[in-house]
Amino acid sequence: MHKLPLWRVVELKNRKLVEFSILMEDVPGMLAKVSNVIAQEGINIIYGVHHESDEPNATWWCFFADFGDIDPDEVASKIAKVEGVKKIAFTPAAGKHLFFDTHHSSIEFFKERAVLFRANWLIGIFSEIYKRWGTGGRVFIYYLGFEGGKEAYEVWRKRLDLKGKDLIQVSLDLIQSLGWITGYSFSLDLENEMAIIKLEKNFECALSKNMEGSHFIRGVLAGFFTGMFGSECSVDERRCISKGDPYCEFLVRAIK
Question: Which has the minimum average pLDDT: 2-16, 28-42, 203-217?
Fold first, then answer.
């Protein structure tokens, strides 16, 4: 695995960058035909994304590219002549330091609006809450996670029609794809309503500032398994990377 930069914000680094968005027919070979035009011009694509369009049978290819002294108008004219290209928009960088994506209005996650937070920013908020309100702050953050975990269980259970180990695996894959963790393993004992979850580089603990342990993620797990087991669960963090352990390990048990 490798890291994925957030492509919607790019450092200029004295480069003459241009943001391009190209709407094209959603058929095999379209991306190759368009990229061939760009390559022939000697243009280097820095970051980009290929995503579906609201228009039927069409797809967007959006990217930042280093144009140097090449005229983007001329390149756009050549791309427009490629059979299957429907629409082109481009915006040259105007600032000196950062170049922001202005071609997309919002981020969507399965047709729902999504927002992004820097992990250090979020951990800083948690840390300040703990500093101001002590144990009460920790309980507050725990229950934020708890309600989120319960909601996540219901959403993915209904949307994917999964249960048990299959639902746990998909849910852990999901938070890994969202950057919360870098890996995981788990075991499940449905008969005794218990589970052991091991998380690698859990963001809450990997970036913690003398917080010693997880409260938000612990709450998420408690809420998720409360939904799965049908009764409230307790979650004990038995190992934690903020204390020098190689991973965070959580013991989940239904309260009987």
Answer: 203-217
Residue 4 confidence (pLDDT): 87
Contact between 15 and 66 (Cβ < 8 Å): yes
Domains of the chain with CATH codes: 14-105 (3.30.70.260), 119-254 (3.30.1380.20)
Residue with tokens 């020098």: 244
SS (H, E, C) 5-58: CCCCEEECCCCCEEEEEEEEECCCCHHHHHHHHHHHCCCEEEEEEEEECCCCCE
> Which two tokens mark 120?
């250090």
Q: How many helices (H) and strands (E) does the chain have?
A: 6, 12
Per the confidence metrics, is the pTM higher than 0.85?
Answer: yes
For residue 119, what is the enclosing H or E element? helix 119-160
